Amino acid sequence: MSQRTKIKALLESEQTNIEVIVKGWIRTFRNNQFIALNDGSTNNNIQIVVDFENTDPALLKRLTTGAAISVVGQLVASLGKGQKVEVKAKEIEVLGDSDPEKYPLQPKKHSLEFLREIAHLRFRTNTFGAIFRVRNTLSYAIHRFFNDRGFVYLHTPIITASDAEGAGEAFKVTNLDMANPPRVENGDVDYKQDFFGRATNLTVSGQLEGELGAMALSDIYTFGPTFRAENSNTTRHLAEFWMIEPEMAFYDLVDNMDLAEALLKYVISEALKHNADDIEFLSQRLAEEEKQKPQNERSEMSLTEKLQFCLDNDFERLTYTEAVDILKESAPNKKKKFQYPVEGWGTDLQSEHERYLVEKHFKKPVILTDYPKDIKAFYMRQNDDGKTVRAMDILFPGIGEIVGGSQREERLEKLEQRMDEMGIPKEELWWYLDTRRFGACPHAGFGLGFERLVLFVTGMGNIRDVIPFPRFPKNAEF
Ligand code: 4AD
Ligand code: MG
Questions:
Q1: Ligand nearest to the CA of 349
Q2: Per-residue DSSP letter, 194
Q3: How far is Cα 206 from Cα 224, in angstroms, rounded to an integer?
Q4: Could you tell me which residue ranges the Aminoacyl-transfer RNA synthetases class-II family profile domain spans (predicted)?
Q5: What's the domain range around 321?
Q6: Ligand 1 pocket check for 405: Cβ under 6 Å
Q7: What is the ipTM metric for this complex?
Q8: Do 14 and 155 share a domain, yes or no?
Q9: How far is the centre of ligand 1, averaged over its atoms, from the C-alpha of 393 (Å)?
C-alpha cells in the first residue's frame, strides 16, 4: 500500500476499514486529538484522529495549522457529527513544518482584502479553493464545448505588431537595453526598434489572427491571456485577463448570438454539475455578505438560483437603439437618476445603464446588437442604415458586459473605407485584408472575458479574486 488517496475520494468512499495514505495541509488541530486535513481536492476536510497517548509529544507539537503531513491510517465510519468517515492515524509524518507564530493564515475568517495581500497563500482557504476549482471546471468545459462542435483550438500570438481593437491600449514589448537605448534624432528612445528592430506589443485580442484561421478551418477558438494597458482600478478590469475568442466562417450575427448563449449556458451547467459543493459553499458565503447590506439592496436570489435562472431563460435580445429608448424613459429608482443620464443616440452605454437593463428592467441576461458604428471597432460589419454595425454585447447581472463580438465586415471596399475613416493603417494590416481579397465570406465571432464569467459563477464581487495571480496597476509581484 503506497498509493496516496485524495481526500475527496476518501470522503466519498463506499468502503471503510481499509488502510489508506492521506497527505495534505493541517487546517486545525483540536484537543491534541483531531486534525482537520485538507488537500485541495474538496473544501471538506477529513478528520484524522490522533492517538495522542501513544504519540511522541514532540510530534504533537509540530501538528500546527499550515503544516504538510502524511498519514497512514485506517478509514473508519465516524462516530462524530459532521462527517461520515475519518482516519484513525497509525503513523504521522510531518513533511513540512509551519511555525504557528509566523503563519499568516489563522483558523478564522480573513477579509478578502487581507487575503489579496497574501495572494501566494490564499489558495489554502476554503473560498479560494472553491473559486479555483470552479475556474478549472469552466475552463475545461469551454474546451469541451468547442471540441464537441468540431472547432479547432488555435494558438494566436502574445507578441504582435497589431493593436487589434485599434484602441491604443497595448503594452509595449521591449528587448532594448534601456541603459543605452537607440534614440531618434530629437533624443527620444526609439521604441520602433524594440522587438529586434520592430515595434511590438502584448496582444489585446487574438481575433484578427483568429479570423485568418477561420478562413480555412471554418470554426476556431482561442483561449489565452490578453493584455490591456488601461489604468483602470475597477472590480471588473485586469491588466492581464484570459479571453475565449471563437471565430466562425459562414456565421451571421444571429448564429453568433446563438453560439454565445449556448456556450454560456453549457459551461454554467457544467459548473453546477461538477462543483455542486463548491457552489453551495460560495452561495452561502454570498448570502452572509448580502446580510451586511441594507434590505432593499439585497439580491432576491441565491447564487445557485441565479445560475439556474440563467440556464432556464432565453437571453433578451434587442438593439442598442431599443435599449436607449428604454433608458431614456427610466431611472434606477424614483428618487435617483442615472449618474450619466442617457440623452441622445450614439453614446456608449455606461455600466450603470447596462446593469439597469439587466438587473432592473429585464431581470435576465441581455444581448444588445446593432450599436452605432462610431463607438465600435473598425472590423464590424456595417448595416445598410449607414449608422450602425452588426455588433453584439452580452450583459450579465452583477457583471455588465461579459461578451463582446460581431459579424465581421467581409467586403474589402467597405472595410478599407472604414479603416481610412478611423485612421487605421491599412499597410500594417495587409495580411488581414488579404482574407478579404481571396475567398472572403461572411463570418462572425466574439470574445468572452473568462474572469468575468468566473465572477458570475462564483458570485464574487472583485475580479482580482477570481484569477490566481491578478495583474492590475502596481501589482505584479506574485
Ligand atoms: O469587448 P472586447 O474588448 O472585445 C474584443 O477584444 C474582441 N476582439 C473580441 C472578439 O470579437 N473576438 O473584450 C471582450 C471581452 C469583454 O466583453 C470582457 O468580458 C472582457 O473581454 N474584457 C476584460 N476582462 C477583464 N479585464 C479587462 N480589462 C477586460 N477588457 C475586456
Ligand atoms: Mg467590448
A1: 2
A2: T
A3: 8
A4: 132-468
A5: 126-169+204-465
A6: yes
A7: 0.99
A8: no
A9: 10
